[in-house]
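Changelog excerpt: complex records now keep ligands as SMILES alongside chain sequences, and the structure block spans every component. Example after the change:
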Amino acid sequence: MKEILSGNEAVARGAYEGGLHFACAYPGTPSTEILENMTKYKEIHSHWSVNEKTSLETALGASFGGMRALVAMKHVGLNVAADPLFSAGYIGAKGALVIITADDPGMHSSQNEQDNRNYARAAKIPMLEPSDSQEAKDFTKIALKISEEFDTPVLIRLTTRISHSKSIVEFAERENVEVKGYEKNVKKNLVMPAHARALHKKVEERLLKLKEFSNDFKYNTIEYKNKNIGIITSGISYQYVKESMPDASVLKISLSWPLPDRIIKEFADNVERLYVVEENDPFIETEVKAMGIKITGKEIIPIVGELNPRIVKESFNAVEKYKLKETMEKAPGRPPALCPGCPHTSVFHAINKLKLIATGDIGCYTLGALPPLSAMDTCVDMGASITNALGLEYSLKGRDKRKIVAVIGDSTFYHSGITGLIDLVYNKGTSTVIILDNSITAMTGHQDNPGTGKTLMGEDSPKFDLERLIKGLGIEHVYSVDSYNLEEVANLIKRETERSAPSVIIARRPCILLPEMKKKKFDKYEIDENKCTGCQMCVKLGCPAISFDKEKKKALINKSLCVGCSLCFQVCKFGAIKKVQGE
Amino acid sequence: MNTKIIIAGVGGQGILLASDILCEVAMKAGFDTKKSEVHGMSQRGGDVVSHVIFGEKVYSPLISYNEADVILSFEQVEALRNLDYLKDGGVMIINDIRILPVPVASGMADYPKDAVGEVKKFVKNTIVLDAESMAKELGNVKVMNVILLGVMAKQVKIIKKEIWIEALKANVPPKTIDVNIKAFEKGYDFS
Ligand SMILES: Cc1ncc(C[n+]2csc(CCOP(=O)(O)OP(=O)(O)O)c2C)c(N)n1
């Protein structure tokens, strides 16, 4: 059977065919759909973890018990999971352990463009790089085999253009594999210095064996054509090279750590000029140069941003640089924005009005940083809002009277906000933390989390009681408020930021895009043009349903977008916004 | 030569579904096919672009500047934004509606006065239609996408109309098959 699958769907399919028993992940673009698709296969237990570190540790636990396990994350997630990654490299894998990292060259939805091939080298574990969906499926199955055969975790590196591109995939049957069962083995599974010294030796031996495997690996392939130009490449860059340089000889590397040194030498010997085309870091390039082979890479191929066939072709001077058309009228940018009726809006409106310093975090709510709300000062990594606030508090003390709030989403709070909050209490911080609890992980497309009372497989699970948890951490002042009550939100934030003790405000309202919210009936609002003074207070909410007519000097509500949150009604001082009943 | 098509628009307009159907149609017609798009931030009202390529053998899932045979834009300004991807002699199809970006709505940027006219200056084969109104005439705003697919299908001559009809039947809710087929025909006969 043939189907058109995205790279992420194909990984899930490959895991199923390869006899996987266990999968977990914390969501993150572009990796999220791997676990979402895993739930199609009832033979596999799959669940959302609280963060990437817990996720990798859980998968390793399943591997201890002899299950075939897989864990998926976005590239920055592997930073969070780096600690168990390096230990797992020493421990190896009784049941297969496959780790998917989905990198994001071009930063379509990420804060950096780190190249996670570097993790394979640093943690001394093998890495596969598929170049389309068929390979994403096949390589997942191969990774499960390599993992058990060589007693090692295996990394698979996807990139946005692999994860989110679709191509035709041929299906196969599932291979049924028994769970091997648990046996105590402290010399391997308990990495204290005495054990780890022996394990490190084994890891180095394992790398040598893997290098041999890489040299024989049938997906590391040479395609000879014109031998004047030879290009080494991997992953999606392979497709760009084939598209833009159809006559060049190509060495396609699929197992990119450890690199197949003999094949590289052979290829280098047989072509006149040797190049490497790879996105972001000069990973292959550095290794080839260390082998003493002359090769051209980042001298011509950009290191910043993602590649495409045109960039490759231009880099080789095979085509003239494209000159953008000079249009008289330019297309205005269309940045993402908080949705009409987004419950996050009121908090940012209040922060802006109160002129607070807001250390921010990662989620839909990061959009509160954009004008006209412009209510966020920093965004570093998941969980950083609270500890950034704590540090900033120290540097402001006695020097600057401005108040600090940390703003963090519910999923992000569970991910890594809790430890930061303990730190804040322990070290006597007095900043106010605002948890934006929209009862879902919204940014990545609505995944359940410990606050929703549901698991990935749709089972009920204990619904977390945030107030009790926070009180338990030793914070006396914990208050919740309805996000749609603008005045109460603002008053509470004002009161709590003035308090010289730590406090937490939970601003609560389910995400407007949740199916149960979409079903609800609501009244819409409209502008009474006779009363509108053109003050633009409503426009400053940044609601996509509200626009301002510059000629008429009146605000305008787009009825088809309005969801009746009433925030504009609440900010209007002139009674110019009124409810329209029964729509 | 492979056929390269870009579908562009705004988050929530159904761009991804439309390009999924195109991809399926291409496979059913016996071609190798790939498509690429970016999900994530774009879903929050940002612009959305999907690249679809089909032919005997497809390597890159991305279309470069000056390569697209057809661009189907679900909104005026998105046609202008993607203009550079259209090859010389390519066809631009524009749904004649405006969706204001937030910076425009809040008065921080301007929407072009005549985005369609601007595109026409560069592209001889520009097809402009108000598929939203046409869909309303059919009694179902949701079939706007299918009307637009119909217009595009007419331009992609190497795929037979029957394959499109079959794929539509398989991809829309059973109750709406009739209105969807009507919508497709309406688009197909537009130009
Ligand atoms: C380490 C890490 N893992 C995952 C992500 C991807 N990611 C960005 S925001 C987000 C979830 C945000 O959810 P929440 O805090 O509930 O805020 P919401 O989007 O619902 O407003 C995730 C998973 C990331 N940026 N960094």
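The domain at 221-320 of chain A is CATH 3.40.50.920 (Rossmann fold). The two ends of chain A are 47 Å apart (CA to CA).
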